[in-house]
Design a protein that fits this description.
2 copies of one chain form a homodimer.
Chain A: E1 3-6, E2 11-15, H1 22-27, E3 32-36, H2 41-45, H3 47-57, E4 61-65, H4 74-86, E5 91-96, H5 98-110, E6 137-141, E7 153-159, E8 164-170, E9 178-181, H6 191-211, H7 217-239, H8 244-256, H9 271-283, H10 287-303, H11 307-318, H12 327-344, H13 361-374, H14 390-399
Parallel strand pairs in A: 2-9, 3-4, 3-5, 5-6, 6-9
Antiparallel strand pairs in A: 7-8
Helix pairs in contact in A: 4-5, 6-7, 6-8, 6-10, 7-8, 9-10, 9-13, 10-12, 10-14, 11-12, 13-14
InterPro entries (chains A, B): ADH_Fe/GldA (IPR001670), ADH_Fe_C (IPR056798), ADH_Fe_CS (IPR018211), BDH-like (IPR044731)
GO cellular component, one term (chains A, B): cytosol
Enzyme class (chains A, B): oxidoreductase
């Protein structure tokens, strides 16, 4: 029975050309912005210069912090925080993909945080102390994938000498004040990155769809609507990156896939993401590629425990007829179709395709341990439907070989 | 092509039993609450006493303003505002149906408003001056219908000596801080009121679905999801008011039907609501009943201009086969089914059933004029797809006879 609290105060400014508004938007929150970027694609595309131009025109001065890596590290966050403090920045802009936006959120909170920021991150299912305050955060996504622009979560990799862990934080002070979402910025995203984004979007939705409570028919329909739309428009964005209508639809999907609207009240968990995070932490596998490998395997495992839900997925997403089939066969047919879709847009769906090299049983066991180091319930299981013991995580990984 | 701004900062606390949290919630915003209620049903049901108990336990003192009428009048709002000022209330709680919540929002804004509050309301498509500030607003819906609990709109009837007009206001300062939504409070809603609520919810969604821009596939799916869910659970709530699961699903639907998630980016208008408001303003027709009459007639008119969209409605909502049919026939079949649904839950679908008495052509003409007095575009038409000239509004009303 649904019982929940929902809150998302991020203002969303969406549409081709909206980058122009960045300066005006930011000037409402501060006079000196830390402008956080990633590996340089925003400079190549010219978006960076346009952003800086818009900021300067609005009398916002800019302190640049570039070079946030994929799977952003806490040490990077801490360096950027030092810069923000030294320069007395009063607003943080994250312009880039999920890594950049996530790092920006944690930078904005770390500025005020007493103690080591690792204590605000989830470790073994617990958080020492959440931040109570953050500088105003403005997000400018350049990739349609994580949905980080309009939610209060961030994925960060702890890279201390004593601890290496890809983990996360989710707390209200991290909500961006404004997300300036300009789908034109995604035109230059390469084909394969676009495909990984599509996979990430769909996986955000399937996590809630398969791991949430029963009795959420509206959320089910919302989830199906996002998946169907992404499966229609995603391949168009992959095959022709300059198709602005496709870019718009995919970017809009990426936002609603993780701004809370689809998962609201479902009390969901995200076991596929948790398992994948271990892979990308250890091998710098692109997140979307890792998800494409783990999700179908996880689905085949989980379908045994909730076949009727996976049967619904098969029917409503792929229109597969239920005639003469039991739920589990129908479920498996749907999962096969889903895996085919992922392959059709160029995603890998097997561990062997991730460039990790030879994979041993010991490695699977280690990955399961690392996953549970981030999050586990009181019985030591990874939350989800069903909650997963270590051996079951290993079984899923084996199914992905 | 989608280009829009979205913002909805209302915190939603949803679930059976959540009324208990009211005091704690309100105490975060004020110490002395104006508690606005309607005709007394909250007293009969005991909800009022429980609310007051929760407020007192949280050291919030209560100033009662009861008796907000259906189709709430500006004069009532002004009396309540005087009371709020005199008593120095610092927070406004609207506990009741849409009328009560809408009145509460406008009371909260009128407290700070310089000049006559009629100037903040829409007249002939224009607003003199929107309010810039409002007391914190907390909503506690006791009916699943308007969705007012989580949006920034309010429908108010101007009842000056010189002017009588059912009109509205929509502006960000009217967003409730918190909506405390307890579906248990709707258990006592009578059958017919429940049915009207169901009609209101569906109509909120169809307005966006039929009057929005093209190229919003996710919003289409969201809209269809809400309609399908309400058509499944609404009749259950109507036939057995104590079915809490049905009450929950219908109430949740009522919120998402008008909190902006379904209509976001569609740039929609609401011609059916605008025409209906005239009827309920003049004859105190229940809003949901009026909608049930106007909507099918409007749909039959509008389908000629956008048959493919109404054909989609027929297929996706009712699963009607398109085989061998042109879009318009398919559309009309869907509208017939929709009208049958409304009748099946006890709604009227003809003007003659509204208790207005004999209806003349002069009356239809007057109603069209009154509707355009509230809102019209630069060419004097009622916004929608298609925009409606006076004669077309009359034609629609004639089709509803």
């Amino acid at each position: 029975m649904m019982k929940f609290e929902f809150y998302n105060p991020t203002r969303l400014i969406f549409g081709a050309g909206s980058l122009e508004q960045l300066g005006k938007v930011v000037s409402q929150y501060g006079k000196k912005a830390l402008l956080v970027t990633g590996g340089g694609s925003v400079k190549k595309s010219g978006a960076f210069d346009r952003a800086v131009g818009s900021l300067k025109a609005a009398s916002v001065s800019v302190v640049e912090f570039s070079g946030v890596e994929p799977n952003p590290r806490l040490s990077t966050v801490m360096r950027a925080t030092e810069l923000a403090k030294k320069e007395e920045c009063d607003v943080v802009i994250g312009m880039g993909g999920g890594s950049v936006m996530d790092a920006s959120k944690v930078i904005a909170a770390t500025v005020f945080y007493k103690g080591h920021p690792r204590d605000m991150l989830m470790r073994a299912g617990k958080v020492q102390r959440l931040p109570e305050k953050a500088l105003p955060i403005i997000t400018v996504p350049t990739l349609a994938a994580t949905g980080s622009e309009m939610n209060c979560g961030a994925v960060i990799t702890i890279d201390d000498e004593e601890e290496k862990l890809k983990t996360f934080i989710k707390t209200e002070v991290l909500y961006p004040k404004v997300a300036v979402v300009d789908p034109e910025l995604t035109i230059t995203v390469p084909k394969i990155q676009t495909a990984y984004g599509v996979c990430d979007i769909i996986t955000h939705v399937t996590e809630g769809y398969f791991n949430g409570i029963d009795g959420t028919p509206i959320q089910d329909r919302f989830a199906e609507g996002v998946i169907i739309t992404v499966m229609e428009w995603g391949p168009k964005a992959v095959s022709d990156g300059s198709n602005i209508e496709a870019r718009i639809q995919v970017q809009w999907a990426s936002i609603v896939a993780l701004n809370g609207w689809v998962q609201v009240g479902t009390n969901y968990s995200a076991p596929v993401h948790m398992i994948e995070h271990t892979l990308s932490a250890l091998y710098d596998v692109p997140h979307g590629a890792g998800l494409a490998v783990v999700n179908p395997a996880w689905m085949r495992f989980a379908a045994r425990f909730r076949p009727e839900r996976f049967a619904q997925f098969a029917q409503r997403i792929f229109g597969i007829s239920a005639m003469g089939k039991d739920d589990l066969s129908l479920a498996m047919e749907g999962i096969d179709r889903f895996e085919e879709f992922l392959r059709s847009i160029g995603c890998p769906t097997r561990l062997s395709e991730l460039g990790i090299g030879e994979i041993t049983e010991e490695m699977l066991s280690y990955w399961a341990d690392k996953t549970l180091e981030v999050i586990c319930d009181e019985e030591g299981k990874l939350p989800g439907r069903p909650p997963l013991r270590k051996e079951e995580i290993v079984e899923i990984l084996r199914m992905a070989m």
